[in-house]
């Protein structure tokens, strides 16, 4: 009977050591710093997906995020201009003549500590454009809208948001029929 007690004692000690070694692994996960309001600031690159009716385009754009503003130095206006000017050749000429269009999208950020994200609530202002066609300028007023919140994710430091051009008025007359233009930026990364 004595020859069974030594192996049992050794087995109990091995089980206890294994349990203690597994217990110490619980605290080995990396520390994720909490997101702060200042984290969102910077220059970004993003894949912009633009959808209007059955047409979809994608391109890479850049923008800058400041304290309460997303500043586009070259806002994508080709779909807006093509909605105003139906002739494709004249529309392309107008887009070239307009050059880079600047637009600032206002937002308010709040910290969601539970999900480690910043929630962005947008307050877009009306975009005013002077579209050159046939030697004159058409004054276009574009009503932008953001129906959902945007998010800055602290874990991967990415920004995600979407907005739309719901209505265009040219020289005081609303364009009709008109398909809204949706601008989706599903994954924006800092430079």
From TrEMBL:
Origin superkingdom: Bacteria
Pfam entry (one): DUF4840
Database matches in InterPro entries: DUF4840 (IPR032293)
Protein name: DUF4840 domain-containing protein
Species of origin: Chryseobacterium gallinarum
